[in-house]
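S.,

Sequence below, as promised.
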Amino acid sequence: MKRIIIKHLKWIFMGGETIKWVSWYDEAIQEDNPDSIQKKEILDALMEKHNFQIEYVIVDYAEYADKVTSSLLAGQPIGDIIRLARPWMIPTLTKQDLFWPVDEYTDNDHVFLQQYTDNYSQFEGKGYGFRAGILGASSGIFYNRTLMDSLGMSPLQGYVDEDNWNWETFIEVAKKANKDTNNDGKLDTWGLATASLLVQALAANDANLAVENKQNLEDQKTIEALNFLSQLSTEDVARPTEGGDWTEPAQFFREGNTLMYAGSDYEMDSFKEDMPDYDIGFLPFPKGPSAKGYSSHNTIPNYLTIPKTVEHPEQLLYIYEKMNDIESIYDYPQQNSFETLFSNEEDIENAKLAGETINVVDKEEAYPSMPFYEFQGEILEGTSVTTVVEKYKEPFQSAIDEVWKQ
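The prediction came back faster than expected:
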């Protein structure tokens, strides 16, 4: 593990200068646990030693991208440290040389999450973003242990323990839970809340719809994910929609008669509140056939950036590194959160496992003209994968070109 603190010969914050840190939420250190208290003490000492202050600027998320973009293009960025999402800056703003690359300052992997600099914020061989803390939310499969037991099913944890939790076993489990328990000729328990799982499947198979400036629909890993989605639909694996909106699958799960729901770790709080009579478990999303391991997904990764108008970016990175370079009291970064969300040790281990790798899936957030939902919808309606890919590869490429050729 590298722990190389950036070295500096000169400081410019000698006149009480204020660093503006811009985000869509309050990024001031909340002294709500021993780790954050350590960080605040370090920052206070740095501010006193080098005579500077930090102002945390909050911009409403609905207006954020437009306000930040217009300020950057006008040559008057609204902050010195600005949180940005990848689609808002790469490639359009980055290729205008509006940000400092930060690769040479982020070697300390005790602090910096290398995936954010080396992958998520890469543009033409340089990384423009940095971030500490956690990679992001762990996404996976919530399941109803109470329903599992009542249906006489084998514990789902066994598939993970045996390293046999994949798309094939996932479908087998879902089908087993599709039952008519009262013999009235209609299903009254279901195995899966929805078949609309394209993003999760792509991430779980190390696939993406776009790779830099090219559509990626014909890649074998993508085809495998599309075939999986098609199987969920054509074989009636999932509970059919009742015409609800995007919240419908979670509502189905809350009814207590649906075994599995694909979601993210933070949803556990609401499930515990809304389903007090059920024992809810958590598994990683099953591995795809081309995957190296379990993965969570992210469609809009975000990180901190430094505009080119900042004269000494290395000093801001020094401050950020120093305040985050602590000896944590926790065994792993999400311990406090996971132990609050989950009471079962197996669920905690599964959440840790799911969050070790987070794969980005680019869709309409990155390419506004991309007909993602129409594309997914045709697969779910039973149109063959070959037909759908052939129909949409040009519209996907056109949507990508709109962004990359600006």
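The first strand starts at residue 17 and ends at 23.

Coffee later?
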